């Protein structure tokens, strides 16, 4: 067992103590996933565990694994495939993690590791996981009972199909760590550092909070906002991945900032013009101040929200600052602020409709013209005035008629939504797998097969754009 093996960082672990505890522990070094391993490593570093303690703990985990294998095979064998053994050990450690995490005080948890048999900690952890599963089931029934009446497939399928599958198949003893259900509907803020039933409990807690917030508005207004949102972004909102709560929250905020009623999330053309004047020449700091002030006013005018909802709302508005600044710079605020009157807004340039594609002859002629253009500005002007369909844009990018700074200039002319479409196509498999958000995927990529993809990755990294929720919603 490798004591130094670390899981994903979980910032909440640092909230469990000072930067350095009285015994020299660094709570920020403790990880929610693989909590036991990080406790062992940190305890040994701080001198609270010696090598003899570590060896005993490792040995007792091996004994526990042997017991789990016998349970798994129902006494028929004391050996299993390596992959199965790794899964059983991970599940056993997940239960021990649950037990130690519930103690809240890292020093108390380390003391338990030092003085309590691993088998005993495992038994207590299994009970913690079992209780969490029961809480999750009760919470699921609440979410299903009060779910929003909206025709958004990902939202409905997650509640009606994906979550029940998890609750039916979840195995506490042998697969407790596994987050096996396919959850398509994105939350406003998700915490992928959690695993197993603890992840699903948090997912349902946040979904319940989001739905409770959204139920404050009339269904007709919500559906109208969704329809306008789909038209502006040129997709069928019923089939796409986006967060309803974030869309509603932001437009309630826009309503308040433009002097409207927070109960009305449909932004009029007059309100849009006011918001456009407000944001067009404001820098990030000024926009941030406006958003903070707007959130405070929104909280004052809506019925009292509990502290968790208030904190969640504020966190969901943080990404809005960068989106507004970028949209204002590219004169595309209408892709962030959805106006109620469709005729008064200019939709995004890229169309997903195949009928908007040009003929092969037209495409070849334009590609030749672009290749002959001397400046990147001329190339971008030619592209933006003649290319309207996603199919044509992909043909353009795959044609290799752009070089170096040409890509930078073209991507800089795109709105957030247009960039989102390209990113979603490029990183479709990673996003579908749900292992990380778009920001994390982009930051982790060093290269790609095609030149246009390499330049897109570099462009997105330079933007420092933490708007994965928005990008995934397109």
Automatic annotation (TrEMBL):
Domain of life where this protein originates: Bacteria
InterPro entries per record: DUF6179 (IPR045751)
Region entry Disordered, spans: 1-23
Pfam families: DUF6179 (PF19677)
Protein name: EAL domain-containing protein
Organism: Brevibacillus aydinogluensis
